[in-house]
Amino acid sequence: MARFMPKELAAGYGRFRSGRFIEEASRYRDLAAGQTPRTLIIACADSRVDPATIFAAGPGELFVVRNVAAIVPPCDASGGYHGTSAAIEFAVTGLNVANVVVMGHGQCGGISASLAAAEHRPVGRFIGPWVGLIDGIRDELIAHTPGQDKDQRQRALELMAVKQSLDNLMTFPFIAAAVDAGTLELAGAWFSILEGELHWLDWDTGAFERVES
Fold first, then answer.
1. Beta strands, E only, the chain
2. Reduced to 3 states, what is the DSSP secondary structure of residue 186?
3. Quick one: pLDDT band at residue 126, thresholds 50, 70, 90?
4. Residue 201, SS3?
5. 104-135 per-residue burial string, b: 16 or more CB within 10 A, e: under 16
6. Can you give the residue ranges of every domain in the chain?
7. In angstroms, how far is the first alpha carbon of the chain from the final one?
């Protein structure tokens, strides 16, 4: 074992080398020459919600961007550090993905932080400004649902945040152009950790429908 390598990581790497890598060695050789994923998934950094696991995806099948609460910021041409925006740009303009999926999930800590911030509770020096991107829809939700159950409000904001991120995607000129050209499709999803169930956004109704397995 490499010095200072956590035991659980070393054990996992050993299982990978003796199991999956052997089974998919030819795929890894092909992937060494480049990647051609068809789908970009923007998901939460939460350790319980791994897109590759949920979609049973193999190496090279998904291009995944993960951050707190799966938030897509609006396009900002002023510069600065925009890790999520950079990854989106690369996936769409460099890899020419055909699909972009924003996937929220239940019991999201980032969404909880947003609701906590509304009550002026501390949420973190860096987390606060990030989840502040959904302040508008959060405040609208609170204003229109006085006395709403805490869990219901949490889930409602999780779903609303997915929809706002989809709206924000369309502020990127290269995404709007690809969608208009019919070469790119946007989708919204929400994953229930408790039930292990995926819900998909129906663009016609605006509702998230449970996906039948």
1. 39-44, 62-67, 99-105, 185-192, 197-201, 208-210
2. strand
3. very high
4. strand
5. bbbbbbbbbbbbbbeeeeebeeebeebbebbe
6. 1-34, 35-210
7. 40
Average pLDDT estimate for 147-162: 97
Per-residue pLDDT at 130 exceeds 70: yes
Q: How far apart are CA 144 and CA 129, in angstroms?
A: 24
pLDDT digits (tens, 9 = 90+) for 76-113: 877 677 999 999 999 999 999 999 999 999 999 999 99
What are the Cα distances from residue 159, in Å, to 77, 125, 149, 156, 164? 27, 25, 16, 5, 9
Pick 35-210's CATH classification: 3.40.1050.10, 3.90.550.10, 3.30.70.980, 3.40.50.300. Answer: 3.40.1050.10
The pTM (predicted TM-score) of the whole model is 0.95
The residue whose two tokens read 């193999």 is 58
